[in-house]
Amino acid sequence: MVFRWLVLLLVVAFIGIQFVPVQRTNPPVTAAFAGTPEVKAILERSCYDCHSNETRWPWYSRVAPVSWMVSKHVREGREHLNFSQWGTGAEAGEKAREIWEEVEKGRMPLRSYLLAHPSARLSQADRDVLRNWAGNAVAAEKGQTAVSPKREESTERERHHEERGE
Ligand code: HEC
């Protein structure tokens, strides 16, 4: 008896929370990301759902309480970095540096997102492309010629040099 009431209560609560308004907006793209098609394709696939105004809202983004989490990720993601407003705010080189930092440390894309979007996982080749792109963007901002390591070994070597202050 108690169990039945509990189930009923849960069902009513589940239906009730569906009426809490959730923001699912896609505002206009004002300053689209400028980068090579290769870089753009990777970012579109793995980052744009949370870091652009071109979010693909999945069906479960319409079902509370998951919708609350998705909406929060998108809102906070856009606040930190929005590829639809590239060219406004911080300099491109600075943003590229931050992007590579997050990717290198494996903090982005968010783990919960990867569970639902396995194809957003970054391959080693994707990471190489992003690292080279970020390196070039940072160098361009400093007005230097880019150093773009082609292979892992060369990065290893560079890191070694950096450590010794060379
Ligand atoms: C599921 C949503 C989601 C996806 C997908 C996602 N991010 Fe994020 N990102 C966030 C949220 C939320 C934050 C802000 C909170 C935080 O730092 O954890 C954030 C923060 C960031 C920041 C700012 C970090 C800081 O310390 O200010 C960068 C840079 C970033 N993300 C890059 C990326 C890149 C690059 C990708 C794709 C490879 C990506 N993100 C994919 C949700 C996402």
What would you say this structure looks like, in words?
Helices cover 57% and strands 0% of the residues. The protein is mainly α. It has one domain (2-163). 18% of the residues are buried. Mean pLDDT is 89; it is low at 149-154. The structure holds heme C (HEC). Heme C binds at residues 46-47, 49-51, 73, 76-77, 80-81, 98-99, 102-103, 108-110, 113. Heme C (HEC) is lined by residues 46-47, 49-51, 73, 76-77, 80-81, 98-99, 102-103, 108-110, 113.
Structural class: mainly alpha
> How far apart are the termini?
75 Å
- What is the domain total for the residues? 1
**Strand proportion:** under 5%
Query: N-to-C SSE series?
Result: HHHHHHHH
- Oligomeric state of this protein: single chain
Mean pLDDT metric: 89
Q: What's the β-strand tally?
A: 0
Spans of 5+ residues with little confidence (pLDDT < 50)?
149-154
Task: Give the radius of gyration.
Answer: 21 Å
Helical content (DSSP H or I, runs of 4+)? 55-70%
Count helical runs: 8
Outline the biggest β-sheet. none
Shape: elongated
Which small-molecule species are bound to the chains here?
heme C
